[in-house]
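FORM 12-B: Structure-to-Sequence Request
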């Protein structure tokens, strides 16, 4: 999604910024830039100095210029106009590409709050669509119960005032514990696991909307925890995809790439934020993955990444590429 730049230019004033975006064939003007900035998707320009330089037009970094270009590409080429969906892009950059790519933690916090506000009052139609997807993932019986499960779960998602047990109960209308569950053998899709996921998601959304104080270390732990989970999942991804071919959850366990993960970045961050809020000291978790340990021992954490290009040549003439992610944790 973030394309390699044509230029090695490091900083852009507004005129240069607009020229850069337009050189790729995308439209940009003051109104659109202000819209992105209000939503937290773009940072304001960096001022070039203090004192006498006060009032001098600021500059945008090359990374922010590339981010703007990608936002404009999403809007025009891919017809992505929903604010909540756009929010995924800067969060994805921070999550996987790291701190050197120009998306700050403060920007991520603002973007996540914007995203959460759009989850606050879902329409009944949107709630029903979400309920249908969850029911499809869990349902392992074919003798009815779907209509009731969708109806109960739609009310829960629409009103946002239910308990994890109520979510699980609604999904048990389509789940037969005597039959194999959907999903890979290692991580079956159960009513309880889905209700736990929804619980953590709602916990984070409520915290973000209500301006609950979340220290920077909580966010840095969230990124570390997520990357550890993705790393572990990647080792089994091929097997999980093979086990679920032709099943109702085939799409859920299809092969993912770093590029495809941008679409769920905000939700992925929110679920781990909710985990830390609800269960900061999960029993059985390694110490390096527990938030309570991070709060006592970790001063800061930084993620860096670099694109690794293989010397191998694919049939289409391109070279396979991967992303090498390095995390540096500083202890007190």
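FORM 12-B RESPONSE
SEQUENCE OUT:
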């Amino acid at each position: 999604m973030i394309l390699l730049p044509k230029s090695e230019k490091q900083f852009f004033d507004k005129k240069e910024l607009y020229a850069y975006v337009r050189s790729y064939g995308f439209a940009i003007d003051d109104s659109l830039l202000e819209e992105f900035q209000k939503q937290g998707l773009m940072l304001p320009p960096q001022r070039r100095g203090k004192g006498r330089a006060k009032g001098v037009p600021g500059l945008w970094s090359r990374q922010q210029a590339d981010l703007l270009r990608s936002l404009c590409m999403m809007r025009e080429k891919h017809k992505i106009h929903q604010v909540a969906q756009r929010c995924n892009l800067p969060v994805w950059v921070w999550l996987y590409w790291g701190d050197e790519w120009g998306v700050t933690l403060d920007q991520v916090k603002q973007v996540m709050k914007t995203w959460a506000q759009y989850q606050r009052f879902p329409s009944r139609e949107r709630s029903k669509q979400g309920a249908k997807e969850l029911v499809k993932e869990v349902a392992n019986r074919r003798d009815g119960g779907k209509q009731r499960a969708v109806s109960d779960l739609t009310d829960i998602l629409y009103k946002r005032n239910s308990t994890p047990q109520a979510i699980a109960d609604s999904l048990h209308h389509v789940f037969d514990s005597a039959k194999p569950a959907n999903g890979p053998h290692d991580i079956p899709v159960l009513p309880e696991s889905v209700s736990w996921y929804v619980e953590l998601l709602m916990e984070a959304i409520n915290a973000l909307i209500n301006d609950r104080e979340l220290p920077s270390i909580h966010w840095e732990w969230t990124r570390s925890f997520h990357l550890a989970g993705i790393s572990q999942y990647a080792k089994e991804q091929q097997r999980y995809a093979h086990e679920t071919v032709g099943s109702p959850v085939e799409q859920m366990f299809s092969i993912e790439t770093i590029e495809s993960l941008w679409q769920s970045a905000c939700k992925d961050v929110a679920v781990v934020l909710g985990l830390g809020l609800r269960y900061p000291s999960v029993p059985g978790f390694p110490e390096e993955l527990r938030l309570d340990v991070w709060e006592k021992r970790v001063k800061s954490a930084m993620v860096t990444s670099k694109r690794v290009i293989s010397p191998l040549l694919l049939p289409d003439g391109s070279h396979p590429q991967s992303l090498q992610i390095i995390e540096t944790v500083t202890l007190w």
